[in-house]
Specification:
The complex is a heterodimer. Chain A is an alpha/beta fold. Chain A folds into 2 domains: about 150 residues, 3-Layer(aba) Sandwich (Rossmann fold); about 80 residues, no CATH class. Chain A has 8 helices and 9 strands. In chain A, helix 6 links the parallel strand 6 and strand 7. The two termini of chain A are about 35 Å apart. By secondary structure, chain B is an all-alpha fold. Chain B has a domain of about 190 residues: ABC transporter involved in vitamin B12 uptake, BtuC (Orthogonal Bundle), CATH 1.10.3470. Chain B contains 12 helices and no strands. The chains are: A alpha/beta, B mainly alpha.
Amino acid sequence: MLPGGEQVCLTLNNVWFAYGANPVLEDVSLSIRQEELVGIAGPNGSGKSTLMKIMVGLLKPDKGTVSFSCHIDECEGMTPCRPCIGYVPQNPVIRQEQFPVTAREVVEMGTFGQIGLFRRMNSDSKRAVDNAIAEAGLDHVQHELFSDLSGGQQQRTLIARALVGRPHIIALDEPTNGIDAQSKQEFYKLVNHLNKAHRITVLMILHDLPDLAAHVERVIFLQRKVIYDGPSANLNAEGLWNLMVEAGRST
Amino acid sequence: MVLEFLSYQFGVRALLGGLIVAVTCSSLGVFLVLRRLSLVADGLSHVAFGGIALGLFTGIYPLYTAVVGVVLGALGIHTLGKLRVASDAAIAIMFAAGLAIGIILISITQNVAVDVLSFLFGTILGINQTDLYLAAALGVTVIGILLLFWKEWVGITIDAEFARVSGLPVPALELVFTIMTGLTVVVAMRLVGVLLVSSLIVVPASAMIQLKMPFRQTVLAACGVAVVSVVAGLQFSFMYNIAPGGSIVLVTICFFILAAIVARILPKIPKKLPGGSWDHQCDR
């Protein structure tokens, strides 16, 4: 627990990671508090996606530790109690044209890890899928092919898939890439609703600097190391831009 | 006469064997094509060729050694993947290794030319009771495992990264799937031959994927295409005295072309709009 009574739900201690001989993350330490809305920023190649993959368990750090402290009692009935964290990847293969899978089938996938091997979806998991679809405002398109949906609807489908496991944290890798301005606003509204109404901690990798300043509470600026970690209110878009330029020069 | 070949014992065996192969190949094919692993079947069919050559060399029934060969080939592809070799390169390496072993073993084995040709091009009309039992056993095993882990295969196909994050044992499941593909290759190889086996896996699946149906319907439709292709291919083979393996695959190619045409015409047909009325009054 942090001073002020805030619960920490994810901690990275001295995390190092390299692809072969190329260092990507160097001694990254940070704590994510419950119900925070955090934006991760940095220039291309700064290690943002690698950091997120380490957070969600897709990559193991070469050195250092990652620890979660979710409320286990809230995970009753979940086997395994894995989805402390729900993940929305940057560019899943289902975006390709002709992938024969409906929006509902994509969301259903969010229950598979909890249901466990050899078991089928039961009425509870179907209800969880219904709720996640309703929450993301996808009722009217749930039986459409995922590849036929708009960019914004696809993104909301992926969020619904991450939500269906009732995670404490949701991690989104560049979620606003390739969606129009209106869909982007709807997306931020949904994320804000999840954060405030459902008290879900949100981690987002964002490239759009004005969006970072406007839609997140805390910014972690990465350039292999954490070079800024603080409230977004302390950084206007210009301040972030200067950081970005400095980071670009240093590489 | 339509389906005249069924009046012969060998025709009935060919049809039963063909139907087993049609269902196993096409259902696995949808998963493989969507995961861009179509070449796995091709690679494993050449590894199976190495296994067959080993059988001919040692005097063991060649399909048994082919099963051992494809399981080892599947493990090889999986291990190379773990060593960060790209999946297409891993498949190509196993493909080359299987073919090389096969060629060497055949070159030092006497009087096997006819047997080798039968495995290269398939002899569906000449399959015996043992082949049929082996095909049934492998086919039931593969379909059983496919149904048992259906949601896991769907999950890995939709998004393997997300499946891992949500707690599915993705690497182990991928290995099982590659072994299942290898066993399917062995089943199909006896019928359509090493050279055409991957087409029976890839073509029906690719044909039906174009029609943009939900996942389950796509798999069922691919099975339907493969079953009809086997029946029609055998019929054409019997009617015109042509190679049944090639005939079956050519029918699947016709389905692919037909599906491609339908897939391009369908989006141009305007959808019927609900309701709507015309109640415009002009004051003139």
